[in-house]
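Before surveying the methods themselves, we first show a specimen of the format, giving the amino acid sequence and backbone structure tokens:

:::
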Amino acid sequence: MRSVVICILGLVSMVTAWDPIWLQPEQVHLSATGDPTQMMVTWSTFNDTKESTVEFGFQVENMTMTASGSRTKFVDGGTEKHTQYIHRVTLTKLKPGSLYMYRCGSSYGWSTLFYFRALPSDPTPKGGIRFAVYGDMGNENAQSLGRLQVEAQDGMYDAILHVGDFAYDMEVDNARVGDEFMRQIETVAAYVPYMTCPGNHENAYNFSNYKNRFTMPMYEEVESLWYSWNIGTAHIISFSTEVNFFLEYGQEVIKNQMAWLRKDLMEATKPENKAKYPWIIAMAHRPMYCTNVFFDDCTELVGITRKAFEDLFYKYGVDLYIAGHEHSYERMWPIYDYKVYNGSNDAPYTNPKAPVHITTGSAGNKEGQHFLLPKPYTAFQTRDFGYTRFFILNSTHIHAEQVSDDKGGQIIDKFTIIKDLHGPEAWL
């Protein structure tokens, strides 16, 4: 009798461990590598499938190409030690600008069929390089998500830039909130590269949910905390403002990031690199300038970010800095050290003498919107939920516009940065 019970229990254990529902891929998302012939595919399963495979091709009936990758075990820091396996596969030898169908998984189960367009190799394609940019999106009150889903699936963007604060918060309920958020953004991120940086809401367990769930360039070295990549005529730098605030995780990470930032900017401003990628765009979670009335965000705390990074970015001629954190949209006049450096009275963004700062943290979350108190360096601000579109048109023009979800997708702000010179010489 005892042997029969043991046998039955063993069978139950096997069924539980290998129940097909835990082998199905979910939370599928793409990321760019900086090479237009490549695309990174990342997804999760809740049991180890022993395989990580992507099948892809130009047509549904002809998906003859395959790529295999790796998987890592991620154990959340909560009391339940919620466990999943993160799969990563790099697709190579893609034809830039071409549309691909794909599915990911293993012999135990496959995802639904998705599609993406490989990034363009032409630095100035018709319509420019197109981004949707936002921060501070939760899985509750993700107000902008519906509109972004349609636009991403309709091919309106080449990439998404999410400047920190996901889910609110990923570690909640033993990381189930993180799982649900990743399922929600799959409707965007499985179709368009979803490029990220960490925010303050990712800090739990030394940013472990962020580090494990996303696969950015340099992932193997720094777990997506900082990286850079090139697209069109732009060099895009993503970094962490949060390492300067959560000091319990050590000083070494601050030193390492600053050393990398200096090296990356030195390399980006070499004549041969600046000729190909003249625009330098930096993105991180916290702004250097803001005017929201929300505790001491825009007084004492904003100074920490500005003190750490502003002089370095000015020295190397960073053209544009994009941040979130404040639950609003704010466009600044070109600014350095609290002084406005407009190109001219009539055309402030034509050959400006300082970087342009944009805060776009209003994609929608349960914390709601912040109140605003404009300052002399404020060009435009709004509390409307929404997101920003950027179009890198060529080596001299970037166009931007703010979409209000509160107003049904209406464009409520737009401007164009025009620069004949890039780098620190542009400030002279």
